Amino acid sequence: MPKCRLPPDKFERAKQFLLMSPSETAKADRQSAATLNQDARRGQRAGQVNTTQHSEGGPRHYHLLWDEELEALRPVLIRVLEHLGEVVEHWYQLYVLHFGDKRSLSESEFREVFYNALARNTKDLLDGDMDRYAVDTIRTGELLCERNVPFAEIVASLHLYEESAYTAFPKDPPPPLEIYTAFDKLSHIRMILLADAYFRSASASAGARIHALERQATLLAREKRSTFHGLVGSSAAMRRLYDRIEAASGTRGTILIVGESGTGKELVARGIHEGGAMPTAPFVALNCAAIPKDLIESELFGYRKGAFSGANADYLGLFRAADGGTLFLDEVTEMAPETQSKLLRAVQERCVRPVGSTREMPVNVRLIASTNRDPEQAVRAGNLRQDLYYRLQAGVLSVPPLREHTDDIPLLVEHLLTSSTRSSSRELR
Questions:
Q1: Residue range 327-334: mean pLDDT, rounded
Q2: Which of 58, 228, 263, 399 pairs with 117 at a CA distance of 20 to 30 A?
Q3: Is 220 a member of any domain?
């Protein structure tokens, strides 16, 4: 396998820049611009990006890249295009090395998607046509979504592409560090476009899937339903649950789902959300038992920069992340009583106060909670506040354990075998 020809110190700096958060990236951009201006005043050698020619205001392209930086990238972009086959080959080898049998794309699929996309994108950049570049990149994002490539895999793969592209860069003399920084900015722009296209496409697919499920439900008589929003079963107990989910979907009130572990409480919550008036709105789930009790408040309500040690930037919080949609709190009885009190206030007042803030933020969120305990016993034991239970008990759905609908076992076995077969087929590609 060919090795990356970027010097180790420069590669580490480039990699760190790629992995920065948006706030850190902005800070790095400001520092980089300041350094470049100093270099320009000192009369740095020709070939470095001259920021003194930048136009007024911020960078032109997606608040990241100047026209001068794009022009300075021409020599390395030409090299990448000339050695595109070698770059993609190196990229695929890294992709296999990092993802192994868990990768989503076969070799032929990988080359079909990325070779053609890179050829088009690089030509767009050399022509200086950022609009066409955006359109072509958006098409790639939609295609990756259609092929069900996980978004985390896309992010990691694009980082591997950058490492592979460095192998085509000139070696003697190597480009100045500013060229690598500009190339990183271009990678950030590519990720912005891919993310927007990917999630728009995923949202549209989810909407189509929900519409198909709803249509299927209307065509089938209630007594013949065997699946419903991911739940499987045609027994009387499951049909009663389906009816309760449909009824709950038509309201915006709080819901408490009660059931033993493994009965599918989150599927029920998703069914309620998907059957509602805004199925494409955010659905945010949190397992309260998995978050330390001293951290769950900041996780739910967010925090301001500097609110505590380690709070280096503002954090939105799950309530505001779910604004307009549904927040599902699994195992709510594992939450500390004082946090339950603040949760109740957030639901009643429709606002949250981030940790370290003096202002409350309005939110429009539907709360669905679940527990594997008997809620009344949980109240008596002090695991569930009486006032919060009073708010939740207006809508309680009980999910039956499998021992109460054993006649659904053949359907569940068939469903699991089908899912396993599909998973195995993907891994063998």
A1: 94
A2: 58
A3: no
